[in-house]
Amino acid sequence: QVQFVESGGGLVQPGGSLRLSCTASGFTFSSTGMGWFRQAPGKEREFVARINGRSSSTTYAESVKGRFTISRDNAKNTVNLQMNSLNPEDTAVYYCRRVLGTLPIDDFWGQGTQVTVSS
Description:
With 119 residues, this protein is mainly β. The protein has strands at 3-7, 10-12, 18-25, 34-39, 46-51, 58-60, 68-73, 78-83, 92-100, 103-104, 113-117.
């Protein structure tokens, strides 16, 4: 059974940083591209960042490029998202999922982890 457990969200002031983590299970993690997505209140879910299985290729949404960094640890089946210079527009629920390119493979979205950027 494919599962994703996201953590690390919280309340942070504008300009601050957070590090999100996601532990995945139920598939061969090291050979699977992984991505982060987010959904803000009243908006559609959007792609944030992706990384391939070997960590040799990453892609970022224009809105986060230069501020966010995606990484992974295949030994621990985890994918991380370091978020710096946060602004209120980054407020959303963040999810990690398997990806093909920048599209999610999985068609279920659990609780994710809430990120709120506010003073």
